[in-house]
Specification:
202 residues; four-stranded antiparallel beta sheet
């Protein structure tokens, strides 16, 4: 009787020990699986955001150096008060403007399903804002790049039909219409504009 009881006790002990090992192994596997996935996604997202920010900064720097950025800022129709051929909307909604800067935006972001907005801040303290491109509301993982561009009084507009119109002519009233930024009155400098690109993955 004692031997049978001891055998049963040992069997129960072994079963309990085996069950404990299985439970610990299962928990360990589950914890490893759930710990790695969010961390990997977060690291991947951060890498993508850093990459998009670097591309946006490089694009602004290159476009500013070769004059494409200034040409885009000056593609303004003073009579319609618009960057586009329409009064409303006065900005582009499906991609960059039809010039070298817009082509660079589309090639860098649009073709990779990355949306972007381009805003121009101007006036004293850059408190006023004009939209060049608006592709929607940025997501929480959007990144931003900025660049300052100085426009001079003798800068010519680049919108079709207005290439002979300078900012000075608009400012002193010798040409019809208005520019979106007002003359800061600082000698030959018309205004300092802050161009802001916001990009996010669709």
């Amino acid at each position: 009787m004692t031997v049978a009881t001891d055998d049963r006790a040992q069997a129960h002990t072994l079963e309990a020990f085996a069950a404990a090992i299985l439970i610990v192994a299962g928990l360990t596997f589950a914890l490893q699986a759930t710990a790695v996935t969010p961390l990997s996604a977060s690291t991947s997202n951060q890498h993508l955001e850093n990459q998009q920010r670097a591309v946006a900064n490089d694009l602004l720097e290159t476009s500013a150096a070769n004059g494409d950025l200034e040409a885009a800022l000056l593609r303004w129709d003073p009579d319609r008060e618009s960057f586009t051929d329409e009064r409303s909307p006065s900005y582009f909604t499906s991609g960059g403007p039809p010039n070298a800067f817009g082509e660079a935006l589309n090639a860098s972001f649009g073709e990779r399903r990355i949306a972007f907005n381009v805003r121009i801040r101007h006036g004293a303290g850059n408190e006023e804002e004009t939209t060049l491109v608006n592709m929607g509301a940025p997501s929480d993982n959007a990144v931003t790049a900025t660049r300052t561009v100085v426009l001079t009084d003798d800068a010519n507009l680049t919108a079709p039909g207005y290439q002979n119109t300078t900012l000075r002519m608009l400012s002193d009233g010798s040409a019809s219409g208005e520019f979106y930024a007002t003359d800061a009155g600082g000698g030959a400098v018309y205004d300092r504009l802050e161009v802001r690109i916001v990009v996010w993955q669709l």
